[in-house]
């Protein structure tokens, strides 16, 4: 994650405490704002109180008896001038014109949600948009090619994802596609063919099925970035599933294997009370 570069640069410079004024005490958010909005570090001591200690750095706010080694503010120095280029999340909008108006709106919303996902782990420089849309400071380009290990995330891909495949890739190409009711079957495969993406097309499954795996591209981006950070693939998928995704998966499994699987399903899918009640009420209506 980007914040580890921020904290190690601070330590390298001999700073172990930072006065952050009114900012949120979160090293990742501070690092992103430094790269995106021209904030940074000024060597100036300021009194405050420690509100958080993270990664060996004390974050101070307000007034208090502790003195910081430096402060964080607009116009300060960017201390990560050369942040890592990888991992890179590429969203390709090559099928945008095949979408209806509502799908286009949702695609744009998901594009901005993808930027927020990337910023949770890295920053805008780790995102590329292929198409005609500006999103934060992500690179916008009309075509994309990569020499780094790359995969295309495709629900109909011929390779099944596992942690090794995801962690072995540096670049993740996603289709910037929202298709209501999955009406555009094989859309990602078509996009890859149209663009000439000659990279493995990888599908994410959950215990052998794509049922319940969220199909929003911002959520798939979050899954791969979580796995890159060391999380297990199954845990990463479950953490981005909505309640409706969980209900759909549980009903699918009950349909295949009977109601006796319910307790185990609730457990492995980490179903909360709401999901349990939604499943029970759907089953009672059958
Ligand atoms: C709504 S999906 C597009 C679905 C479209 N019906 C298709 O057949 O490709 C949007 C994007 O999310 C990603 N995606 C969604 N589900 C996925 C899965 N199970 N495995 C891999 N990628 C997935 C892909 O990059 C895809 O282009």
From TrEMBL:
InterPro entries: MT_TRM10-typ (IPR028564), MT_TRM10-typ_sf (IPR038459), tRNA_m1G_mtfrase_arc (IPR016742)
GO molecular function: tRNA methyltransferase activity
One GO term of the biological process aspect: tRNA methylation
Domain of life according to the entry: Archaea
UniProt KW Kinase keyword: no
Keywords per UniProt: Methyltransferase, S-adenosyl-L-methionine, Transferase
Domain SAM-dependent MTase TRM10-type: from-to ranges: 71-248
The name this protein goes by in its record: tRNA methyltransferase
Organism (species): Stygiolobus caldivivus
Lineage of producing organism: Archaea, Thermoproteota, Thermoprotei, Sulfolobales, Sulfolobaceae
């Amino acid at each position: 994650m980007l914040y580890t570069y921020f904290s190690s640069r601070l330590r390298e410079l001999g700073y172990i405490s930072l006065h952050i004024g009114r900012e949120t005490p979160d090293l990742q958010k501070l690092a992103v704002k430094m790269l995106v909005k021209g904030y940074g570090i000024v060597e100036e001591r300021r009194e405050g109180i420690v509100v958080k200690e993270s990664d060996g750095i004390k974050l101070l706010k307000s007034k208090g008896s502790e003195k910081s080694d430096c402060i964080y503010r607009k116009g300060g120095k960017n201390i990560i001038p050369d942040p890592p280029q990888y991992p890179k999340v590429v969203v390709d909008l090559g099928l945008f014109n095949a979408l209806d108006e509502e799908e286009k709106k949702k695609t744009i919303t998901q594009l901005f949600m993808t930027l927020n996902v990337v910023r949770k782990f890295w920053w805008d420089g780790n995102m590329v948009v292929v198409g005609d849309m500006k999103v934060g400071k992500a690179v916008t380009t009309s075509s994309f090619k990569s020499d780094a290990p790359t995969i295309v995330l495709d629900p109909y891909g011929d390779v099944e994802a596992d942690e090794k495949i995801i962690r072995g890739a540096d670049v993740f190409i996603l289709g910037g596609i929202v298709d209501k009711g999955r009406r555009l079957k094989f859309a990602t495969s078509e996009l890859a063919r149209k663009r000439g993406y000659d990279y493995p097309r990888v599908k994410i499954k959950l215990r052998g099925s794509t049922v319940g795996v969220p199909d929003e591209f911002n959520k798939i981006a979050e899954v791969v970035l979580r796995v890159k950070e060391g999380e297990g693939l199954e845990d990463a998928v479950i953490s981005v599933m909505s309640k409706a995704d969980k209900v759909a998966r549980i009903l699918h499994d009950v349909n295949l294997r009977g109601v006796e699987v319910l307790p185990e399903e609730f457990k492995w899918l980490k179903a909360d009370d709401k999901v349990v009640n939604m499943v029970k009420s759907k089953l009672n209506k059958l």
